Amino acid sequence: DVKVTQSSRYLVKRTGEKVFLECVQDMDHENMFWYRQDPGLGLRLIYFSYDVKMKEKGDIPEGYSVSREKKERFSLILESASTNQTSMYLCASRGGTSGRHEQFFGPGTRLTVL
Amino acid sequence: AQSVSQHNHHVILSEAASLELGCNYSYGGTVNLFWYVQYPGQHLQLLLKYFSGDPLVKGIKGFEAEFIKSKFSFNLRKPSVQWSDTAEYFCAVSPLNTDKLIFGTGTRLQVFP
Fold first, then answer.
1. Among partner residues B96, B97, B101, which is closest to A103 by beta-carbon distance?
2. DSSP notation for B30-79
3. Contact A99 B100 (CB under 8 A)
4. How far apart (Å, rounded) are the C-alpha atoms in residues B72 and A63?
5. Residue from the list A41, A48, A102 with its beta carbon closest to the beta carbon of B105
6. Number of neighbouring beta carbons within 10 Å of residue B83
7. DSSP states of chain A as a string?
8. Contacting residues of A for B32, CB less than 8 Å apart
9. Could you report the per-residue pLDDT of B31-77, keeping only the tens digit for each?
């Protein structure tokens, strides 16, 4: 079974803090993704990575950065958290080289920025 | 821009009722199509997918979906829902030769016994 784990289920931070969200997958997948999920907006892609040290912007990258130093780990960084970044953050991984392959999701991190 | 529309935002049904959730996408080329489900408190997981061939695909838990190319649609169906089908359902589209998966806004399904 593919397992995607995220470092925290719930996180509360203050405006201006630097926030790290960690994601680890155990299936040697090349591709990893960060989404945010908001009611009425579905899932929106923030960043993705198709290899170690490689990254691509998704649809809403502003205010975020990512790091992928090891194949199994993909980190999302909020350099200076703001209240509009309060959301559910989902990490996913996918094997293969095409969009035909299923994405496997982690349990999500619910981030609240006060 | 490519987009996925799910017009039913919230659906309430009684057990044994039939279900159809709409999904339309805006992309003229070849796409891979998915339905994901998120049960309360659980991970998002794949329900079914379509790449090519028979446009009627069957997934887990008795769900099926039909791809109608001329209508750019991929509607999800189940003949008889159960209380355990209460969840949020997301349609997603991946244009061929891209890494992106574009999600719809989701449909919240509540099934009452």
1. B101
2. -EEEEEEEE-TTS-EEEEEEE-SS-SEEE-GGG-EEEEEGGGTEEEEEES
3. yes
4. 34
5. A41
6. 12
7. ---EEES-SEEEE-TT--EEEEEEESS--SEEEEEEEETTTEEEEEEEESSTT--EE-S--TT-EEEEEETTEEEEEESS--GGG-EEEEEEEE-SSSTTSPPEE---EEEEE-
8. 98-100
9. 999 999 999 999 999 999 998 899 999 999 999 999 999 999 999 99
> Bridge partners of B102?
B93
DSSP B69-84: GGGTEEEEEESS--GG
Q: Is B86 helix (H, G, I), strand (E, B) or coil?
A: coil
Q: Does B106 touch chain A (CB under 8 A)?
A: yes
In the numeric block, the tokens 């061939």 are attached to B53
CB contact under 8 A, B103 and A44: yes
Residue A101: per-residue pLDDT:
81
In this model, does residue B99 exceed pLDDT 80? no
Structure token digits, residue B42 = 């659980």
* Contact yes or no for A99 and B32 at CB 8 A: yes
- Taking the C-alpha atoms of residue B48 and residue B34, their distance in angstroms, rounded to an integer, is 6
